[in-house]
Structure formats: structure tokens, C-alpha cells
Amino acid sequence: MTGDSEGFSFDSAGATDTGRVRDHNEDSFLTLPSAGVWMVADGMGGHHAGDVASQILAEELETVGVPVSAQDLRARVSERVTRAHNRIQTHSDQLGHATVGTTLAALMIHESGFTCLWAGDSRIYLLRKGRLSRLTTDHSEVQELLSAGSIDAEEARHWPRKNVITRAIGIYRTPRTEMVTGMVDDGDSFLLCSDGLTEHLEDDEIAELLGDGNAETSARAMIAETLARGARDNVTVVVVRCRANGGEPGGSR
Fold first, then answer.
1. Which domain covers residue 238, as residue numbers?
2. Which of 19, 70, 71, 103 could join 122 in a cystine, given CB atoms 3.0 to 4.6 angstroms apart?
């Protein structure tokens, strides 16, 4: 899906798959280049719970409209995250106070600035001039142990509670999110993904697939590679390629 802001044009695409093991898909995604908003959400709670939670988040963000500034865009998205949070909690009450929630990984771009807003272990990456960097830090028990130096990266890969997250939309009294901002460069490619992707692909493999082809081709290639490796979880990706208006197609990678 293509779209434009005042400073950049976007080629973006999303793809999702239930995977090889799960019997339903609790992930949702949103590509809304006209507003400068993209999102991946990984629900939790099982049938009629996790899938509903992530869908509620996508439904709310889809109503963001057209912002007039980066601050306005962040305010609109934050307001809709809060509305989704409240709707998810109401759904939980209807299910007898069941645990219902969803991760959030949202990318916002207005003119030449970007904002990442997230909760949980869905991630946002940036590929710039061939170098991949992760813009988000997982809200998870295993990340806390890594950050504290209690375990190393190899232990983290096999940690028995590595899928336990410490933040989510719909779980706590209020949404607990984190935010980072930066500037967009011509040729930047962003990747939003659920942990179903990063369970199977290393950063160098993600960089190679993210840097190849258009957004649709890259998104589908990442899903296909994850499925080929067993896809133990739902897997969802959104790819956003940015080109400065007036620049050459493709930009730097």
C-alpha cells in the first residue's frame, strides 16, 4: 500500500499467518499510510479473547484520521490506545475477568519525524543504509534478566519463561507504553513484527529479507521463511519503505 506525507512517500505492506502449530491467529496488523500509522498487535487470552483484543486495537487506530502535526498524531494514537484498553477490559469482564490483552507496536510518521509506541514484546526495527537496528526494547521477564546481567543471550534463547511479558494493552489499570522518536532518512525501511518472527529469524537474516524487493515482497518472504522453519506461533509483519518526495525510487538501503 502506498501513501504520502509532506516529506516522504511510503510503500508499505503487512502479512500474517497462523503458523504451523496454533489453531487460530491472535495477531492483527494495520497499514494506514494516509495517516502515517502502522501497527502490529499480538493478542493473549485464547479463542474469543486474544484475537478480539488485537482486533479492537486495530479498529481503534484505524479511526485516527489525518493529523496536523507530529504532536497531534501522537495524541490521537494515544487516545485510541486508551479507548482500546478500556474496550478490552470490558471484554475481559464479560468473559468472567479472564486474562485478555495484546501487545502493541505502532509506528507513526509525520513529515520527517517518526515515533515508535509499544507495549510488550512485539518489535520495531529500522534498516538504514544496510544496517539493522532495533528501536524497541521488549517488555518481558527475559529482557529484564538480560538487562540486569542475570543471564546471557544464549540462556535467553532457551529461557522457560521467555514469552512472559511485563506490559500489555488491556491488562493493567491504565495502558503502560513506551515511546521513542527520531528522524526519517531517504531509503529507510521499518519492520514491525510479532515475536513469532523473531523466534525463528536472527537479526542478520531479518536485515537481508527486509532489504530485498518492495514492501509486499519482503513481508511475504519473512512469513514464508518463518513457516519453513516451523512457525511455532502466529507470525505477523508490517514493512514500511520511505522515500523522500522528489528522490529516486528505492533510496539507500
1. 2-244
2. 103
Rounded to an integer, what distance in angstroms lies between the CA atom of residue 187 and that of residue 249? 8
State the sign of the Cα–Cα–Cα–Cα dihedral 201, 169, 60, 75.
negative
Best CA proximity match to 6, nearest among 113, 84, 88, 163: 113
What gap in Å lies between CA 251 and CA 41, rounded to an integer? 29
Q: Is residue 162 part of a domain?
A: yes
**Angle, CA 220 vertex, CA 11 and CA 50 arms, to 5°:** 100
- Average pLDDT over the chain, rounded to whole? 93
Phi, psi for residue 69 in degrees, rounded to 5 = -160, 165
pLDDT tens, residue by residue, 93-104: 999 988 999 999
pLDDT tens across 122-173, in order?
999 999 999 999 999 999 988 889 889 888 887 887 787 878 899 999 998 8
- In the DSSP assignment, the letter for residue 185 is -
Separation between Cα atoms, residue 183 and residue 111, nearest integer Å: 9
Residue 234, CA distances (Å) to 17, 162, 185, 253 in order: 6, 16, 31, 28
For the whole model, what pTM was predicted?
0.93
